[in-house]
Amino acid sequence: MNEGTEEDKDIVKVTPEKLSAEEVSQMVVSPCCGAVSLFIGTTRNNFEGKNVLRLEYEAYVPMAEIEIKKICAEIRQKWPSVKHTAVYHRLGLVPVTEASVILAVSSPHRGESLEAVKYSINALKARVPIWKKEIYGEEEYSWKENKECFWVKQDKGSSLKNRQESSTDFSEK
């Protein structure tokens, strides 16, 4: 077998460029793999009865890329047979029907790649500092909170005063 001749790859790209599912899926193809699993997140034209015109994404790119690479490393820990991963996320304006995020994973068998893709999109939404703004008809908009984010899972009843009291004051140092 030639399994060891090709080095594993983790490809991460956070970009304002339009994303291509074909390009991303080809990045993870390997002769030793029988599965390439792909997730494509696209802009839909509605949310909770509102007409969505487009999405706008912002990110702290250096931190986003570091966090995505950590997710790729976690995938390799959980599914050692995974060969290649690719995570592309778009920034800026994303019109309806266009891709905001594309994830691809290759592995010898489908089970590992399917599970790894599901894990990666859930981890990305929970941890990566990328923010989404939905633009509705009449140019009304709403910044969207990822319900999966770890920092959102605080006790909703705690007051700002309690949060301020528990935070460290660095001005005294």
From TrEMBL:
Catalytic activity of the protein: 2 [molybdopterin-synthase sulfur-carrier protein]-C-terminal-Gly-aminoethanethioate + cyclic pyranopterin phosphate + H2O = molybdopterin + 2 [molybdopterin-synthase sulfur-carrier protein]-C-terminal Gly-Gly + 2 H(+)
GO MF annotation, one: molybdopterin synthase activity
Keyword Disulfide bond: no
Main localization category: cytoplasm
Record's GO cellular component terms: molybdopterin synthase complex
InterPro entries the record matches: MoaE_sf (IPR036563), MOCS2B_euk (IPR028888), Mopterin_biosynth_MoaE (IPR003448)
Database matches in Gene3D superfamilies: Molybdopterin biosynthesis MoaE subunit
GO biological process: Mo-molybdopterin cofactor biosynthetic process
Record-listed substrate binding positions: H109, R110, K125, K132, K133, E134
Biological pathway: Cofactor biosynthesis; molybdopterin biosynthesis
This protein's record includes keyword RNA-binding: no
Localization annotation: Cytoplasm, Cytosol
Keywords: Cytoplasm, Molybdenum cofactor biosynthesis, Transferase
Enzyme Commission number(s) from the entry: 2.8.1.12
HAMAP family with a match to the protein in the record: MOC2B
Function: Catalytic subunit of the molybdopterin synthase complex, a complex that catalyzes the conversion of precursor Z into molybdopterin. Acts by mediating the incorporation of 2 sulfur atoms from thiocarboxylated MOCS2A into precursor Z to generate a dithiolene group.
Annotated family: Belongs to the MoaE family. MOCS2B subfamily.
Miscellaneous remark of the record: This protein is produced by a bicistronic gene which also produces the large subunit (MOCS2A).
Quaternary structure annotation from Swiss-Prot or TrEMBL: Heterotetramer; composed of 2 small (MOCS2A) and 2 large (MOCS2B) subunits.
Protein name as annotated: Molybdopterin synthase catalytic subunit
Protein source organism: Microcaecilia unicolor
Biological classification of the source: Eukaryota, Metazoa, Chordata, Craniata, Vertebrata
Gene: LOC115462782
